[in-house]
């Protein structure tokens, strides 16, 4: 199977099952079992349980595919690779806030061809396959177009290390007076889907990892958005910017002189 639409169907089935499990098993206050980059960058037991479930379903259907997951790294190799974030927005999950998601993307020969982001608390499952558009509940998605920077609602996110946060606060202080407003949802995958759905006009963040933006990035671009980094570079953990053509360039040109890829 190499049809992007069929990959998206399988990814959606798995993401829905994982989301239902997380809702069913989530206690009133999940316990932190580990921290990652800093004491505020947390992992819960259900992050691992969800990734185990997703991996088992992928292996059952596609035993020879590679899998890259946030919690367990890379297993296998091959032309097809699954990119898995079992809970994007773990702090929101921990506190019972609604912006967390199960994110699954599928690469073929290094290109993302299928994507699903299940924003579980909202009961919204965003899907996309390469060349076939982005969808939510049977409705094709289109990002907002023709919005000038001064009227744009921009999403962003913050890292977990103090030095990075200090710079991000400095950048935000320059951005905020020049846009309509700024939102911080807490899930990069969900934020990129919000750009696709026209709930945000644009998004930028330093720090998201590949599993955070692989699925949401395809959903956004299939909805007509542009995604990239600074100075013509591809989007990466150094910087990810996403918006409709025109606004993308304006947002890029606002950010670039601020040197937002640095840490204090």
UniProtKB/TrEMBL annotation:
Stored InterPro entries: IMPase, Inositol_monoP_metal-BS, Inositol_monophosphatase-like, Inositol_monophosphatase_CS
Catalysed reactions listed for this entry: L-histidinol phosphate + H2O = L-histidinol + phosphate; a myo-inositol phosphate + H2O = myo-inositol + phosphate
Keywords: Hydrolase, Magnesium, Metal-binding
CDD domains: IMPase
Hydrolase in keyword set: yes
GO terms of biological process kind: inositol metabolic process; phosphatidylinositol phosphate biosynthetic process; signal transduction
Pfam families to which the protein is assigned, alphabetical: Inositol_P
Pathway: Amino-acid biosynthesis; L-histidine biosynthesis; L-histidine from 5-phospho-alpha-D-ribose 1-diphosphate: step 8/9
Enzymatic class: hydrolase
Annotated EC: 3.1.3.25
Chain's role: Catalyzes the dephosphorylation of histidinol-phosphate to histidinol, the direct precursor of histidine.
Name by which UniProt lists this protein: Inositol-1-monophosphatase
Organism: Thermostaphylospora chromogena
